[in-house]
Fold:
Amino acid sequence: MTTTTTESPLISAAELHDALQRQQVLLIDVREPSEYNNAHIPGALLCPLANVKELEPPCNSDTPVVLYCESGRRSRMACEILAQRGFANLKNLEGGIQRWQQGGYPVKGAVRAPISLMRQVQIVAGSLILSGVILGFAVHPGFFFLAGFVGAGLVFAGVTGVCTLARLLALLPFNRPQVK
Structure:
């Protein structure tokens, strides 16, 4: 039995820039809101990968839909999801917004954006685990439970793709800056 995957055609940053000048694409950023607020390609709509299944097709089916993320991995996954739903004319920005910025093309974003949500999760989870271990040795062995609980939560998040800590952090006011 063979498995086939839907490969979306790639579009280079230069090709996308030319298409945006002609206003011939629907551009969708599939990253998380904090990443979008930090920097995004002007004119891009935000639709995080988790919400791509709910995306409605463009009114004109001839309009190319270009998806991008940080490096191209998540947007490739989004292209596969949309292709399975019958979207046509899908393209994936080669190298994501990193390649776009390396090309010197404009980005729009918040002046003071917070660090990425994933980094915030790593900082909070790592701090809790480190605190649990230190307190477990220094104060009471019961604090090892804290480190174990956070570790189990990280395993659960990795297996299921549901990170409760990330969802809680996303609700904080500084993770919802105004886009300039």
